[in-house]
Specification:
The chain is mainly α. It has one domain. The protein has 15 helices and two strands. A two-stranded antiparallel ribbon has the order 1-2. It is globular and about 60 Å long.
Amino acid sequence: MEKTRKNLDSRIDYGIILPVFMLSVIGLLALYVALSHDVNTKDVVTGVLKQGMWYAVGGVAIIILMQFSSKWLWKLTPVFYAIGLGIMGALLKFYDVTLAARTGSRNWFRFGSFTFQPSELMKVAYILMMAYVVTRHNVYHRKRTMSSDWLLFGKMLLVTAPVVGLVLAQKDFGTMLVFLAIFAGVFLMSGISWKIELPLITLFVLLAAGTIYLVTTDSGRELLYRAGFQSYQFDRIDSWLDPFHDTTGKSYQPAQALMAIGSGKIFGKGFNISNVYVPVRESDMIFSVIGENFGFIGSALVILLYFYLIYRMVLVCFATNNEFYAYIATGIIMMILFHVFENIGANIGLLPLTGIPLPFISQGGSALLSNLIGVGLLLSMRFQQGKEA
């Protein structure tokens, strides 16, 4: 029995579990503070318990996923992807009208008081499908040629196009960026020739530069308006370029977040002390709570925990001898890394707000469950390989 327990422990990656657990505890503490000082929250304890329930659901999902062998995951991947597309398509008609009017995005279902964002779980299904397509292609094209690499790139685009199209139809620009980040990570790891990658990367850089030009000039914005961009998206750009240009209106939230983080100084004001009001800080702006309460030291600790988590995930990616697993790990790493980079960057004024939550910390069951499922997939890699060994 002792030998069996030691073997079981050796198959569980505690180096991933520990930072996720610590970030989750920090998330519950930060959420308690945010809800305690939110004028619209009547029952703080219920809000925290509801988030705790999602941690429990995610924990159960992790345990279940660790039992999935790569063969079962391979067989079920197309099914997950097809179901995800179907649910995303249904959202175009049955979205929550109230949240759409408030946020400008049609990306939520509502069932009574329960809301759900399908695109969060679609991120995982998309990662699995991308890994499936690349691995399957590489099996049938062991001898790499330029034509086979272009074919692989085309297959990756075919998987990505319907997902991005549905997300854009929901007017969720931030989530679209996450899918593109996942695509970029898997694309770079897919083994496609640099003769293809280099021109495509150059084209992407030029498109990015062109986009910046369009959003920062009047003539460019006029073109984007005609293309379907909304005024609230430009408001976010303006608030990013100058967070204090309209502190009583459109840039109120980012300006308040910067002041809250700055007021925390080195060591913070202390737990549950908040003198700067930040709207909706329990979700997108949760990092401002950490900055105000725990200061630079606490904020740096959170960032270090994310770096350590990503480091441990990278080790899993390079340690696996299963190509399918390696691409799944790459997609999950890119998903979490982009979330962290964008959310914290937006909170400290380096990037525009896009509504992307902070992994394992921000309030929201859909995003939390998606991230914990990603963790479960990574843990299953070592668990299953140890079982096979």
